[in-house]
Backbone:
DNA sequence: TTCTTGTCACCTAGGTGTTAATAT
DNA sequence: ATATTAACACCTAGGTGACAAGAA
């Protein structure tokens, strides 16, 4: 069985409609997909990997702003037509693969090396996604079968876990300002854009900035839900 | 067979008498111990590890300076007596261990996570060494024998490689100023102490500093010697 | 006096959203 | 008008030797 880490944070993003940046060079996900794993054979070898499947066959489009200004995006999405042709369905193997069950279970497994790109010609092995499309991350565990004819047992040596709260829309720039603010509030690497951190205030204060999105800090919840399998 | 990377740099340090800093928290080696490996079974599993053995049973001592000043260290060492009691003989497994021969051979294997400490009570798994003692790094390759009674074949599944040019004296502060200068000249992380880099000059110039040790740049040599085995 | 420790400025390396310019 | 790109300031994270203070 598998338990999603930082579920409370994922839930908070999911409630607003999670967006993940895709760039030509590749961008990490935030939150990072991390899991705790239980019930493996400690002595057996496993491969851990992720892939991303389209949630629907739609292309999205931002709701036109009544102000006619680019400066503020709404949180509403319009369906803009059928999805673009599917991208090469790449897979990301966790770099520690293969490893023993004991190794995987003894600490949180983090996919922080996984990067998303919109470059169809990417040759860095990153996950290729279409911007303005919705995706569902999937987590797969493959038991490395030591038997000679292991190919015949592929079905039973394979297990997939899906956490619906990790769904997101791929974007090249954030569309929903509340998503931006929650990323700034919760991602350590975006600390430079925070305005209400009491520690470094008013030294870091920049006029005209938006208030801190503190919902994350208020609603932490250590309980994770089981995976929909 | 195994080939030492950056042999020219190691030679240059060795000629001056290599020193490696040891700290309580643990300090990386520079140069980093890196090797290219040939002749493994691509499909077999191997563990790669290093350990450090005393070169002799002596404790060293800096030659007293004729100036009576701490500010300048000589390049000469005196024997100061018998070695201190041996430290716990720890080993450092390369973090990618175990891995297939194909994986190890397809790129340079770098021990850049290895750290040296003088803290006898270290609980970070670092290599514990006595300051003012000389050490010889050793590199070991262990074939992971799939046979049930693999312990009986430990001897033949084990191979050790020694590069004498990687010998060094463990120190808590550099003793030979020429070693300091060569470290500054060749370690990217010490760039802040360089004075003769034409790129950033004179912006970075600090008065009273010593000239750049450019021997490394002058004497690069891509040919590595075979290991003394 | 010699050796060790802790703090520091200055780097490398790379992950953020912002912004202005460009593409579609 | 909307979507994408590239350069940028500002962070995290951590590897350097210098230096002053302390320990032996």
Residues:
């Amino acid at each position: 069985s598998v338990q999603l880490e930082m579920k409370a944070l994922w839930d908070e993003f999911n409630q607003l409609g999670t967006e993940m940046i895709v760039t030509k060079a590749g961008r990490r996900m935030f939150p990072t997909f991390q899991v705790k794993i239980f019930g493996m054979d400690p002595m057996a070898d496993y491969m851990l990997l992720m892939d991303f499947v389209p949630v629907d066959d739609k292309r999205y489009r931002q709701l036109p702003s009544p102000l006619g200004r680019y400066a503020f995006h709404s949180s509403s999405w319009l369906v803009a037509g059928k999805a673009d042709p599917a991208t090469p369905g790449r897979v990301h193997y966790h770099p520690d693969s293969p490893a023993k069950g004991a190794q995987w279970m003894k600490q949180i497994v983090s996919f922080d090396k996984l990067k998303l790109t919109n470059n169809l010609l990417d040759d860095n092995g990153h996950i290729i996604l279409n911007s303005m499309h919705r995706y569902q991350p999937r987590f797969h565990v493959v038991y490395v079968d030591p038997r000679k004819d292991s190919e015949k047992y592929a079905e039973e040596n394979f297990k997939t876990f899906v956490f619906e709260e990790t769904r997101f829309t791929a974007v090249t720039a954030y569309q929903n300002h509340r998503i931006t603010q929650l990323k700034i509030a919760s991602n350590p690497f975006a600390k430079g854009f925070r305005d209400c951190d009491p520690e470094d205030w008013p030294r870091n204060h920049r006029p005209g900035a938006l208030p801190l999105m503190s919902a994350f800090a208020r609603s932490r919840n250590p309980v994770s839900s089981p995976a929909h399998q």
